[in-house]
Amino acid sequence: MSTMEAQFEELRVLSLVLPLFAIVVTLFRLAIRAWRRQLWWDDFWAMAAVLCLILFMTAMQLHFRDGSSYSLTTRIALYYMLSEFFYAVNWCSKISIFLTTIRLTVRGPYRTLLVRLACCFGVAWAILFAQVFWVCETQPGWKDTPQPQCNLGRNVAIAQVITDVATDVILIAAPLKLIWRVKVTRPQRIRITMVFGSTIIATIVSLYHAYAILRFGGFEEARAAVIQDGVSLIVADVSVIVAFFARISSVGESHGPVAVELVRVKPSSKSPDSFAVNVDTDTTISRDYSHPDGSDLDKMPSLGSSSPNGKVSALPEADGDGEPFGKV
């Protein structure tokens, strides 16, 4: 077996194993949400990423094999499928991650800002999608090769680096407000930070893909694309799966739901008492309770059994459509 054939065989194996693992993880995440009746738009985009990844895998398997039985048009179409479905998986995963953050945020100006930023994600995806065509269609010769592959070059790599780094910084920074505004225990804070900080891994992989475009192209570029898509989709599922297993672990250790501190804000003549409760990485609950005299805590609606140290042990779930409870 020649070196080229060995590389193609390695790529075919990689393009099956890693994407299949990412698909299984995503289906498990969707099963969790469906079982808990909490499917929402972040799950829709995760499922869209799975469908695009299946098409990406198919195009990869067909493109990197003997193409003598395909027409020239088919080989060119397979390359464009590889390029565009790579973007589709990557950006569907990013949008899913960001919508998970929006899901955790109560209605108000900050949530509105996040929704607008999510629209910017779609604009960035559209620009990169179009860039492949206007770069490749201006290059002569590549369509006549046995395995057509356009040289995307420096401009595409720079555009990918800028958009990936900018959006990943937003994905990492956006949930920090949730951590600062809500009183949580130290293990819970570490868990939330770890979950959303996993986006850094996706950023590193995207930088590797951009480097492969600039320096190598061909096989190395295709391998980096497979790794980036697989890792991006897995990162999109981390928040749901970690929360699921953390809840199971907490129930197993305490034989009951995780205790969450109840925070009392000093009342004033113009503002009522405010209580903020954080459940897990699926829902953030914020409710206001008004007491004219600022002292009658016994009138507060019961959220579950309380302990002498002022903690609540039973918490409500999100409503059916996945929207957070409460108001700003």
From TrEMBL:
Keywords: Membrane, Transmembrane, Transmembrane helix
Transmembrane intervals: 12-32, 44-64, 76-101, 113-135, 155-180, 192-214, 226-246
Region Disordered: start-end pairs: 284-328
Subcellular location: Membrane
Short name of one Pfam family: Fung_rhodopsin
Domain Rhodopsin: 29-241
Topology class, membrane: Multi-pass membrane protein
UniProt biased composition (Basic and acidic residues): 288-299
Gene Ontology CC annotations of this record: membrane
Keyword NADP: no
Family assignment from sequence similarity: Belongs to the SAT4 family.
Matching PANTHER family: MEMBRANE PROTEIN PTH11-LIKE, PUTATIVE (AFU_ORTHOLOGUE AFUA_1G14080)-RELATED, PTH11-LIKE INTEGRAL MEMBRANE PROTEIN (AFU_ORTHOLOGUE AFUA_5G11245)
Protein name: Rhodopsin domain-containing protein
Species annotation: Heliocybe sulcata
Organism placement in taxonomy: Eukaryota, Fungi, Dikarya, Basidiomycota, Agaricomycotina
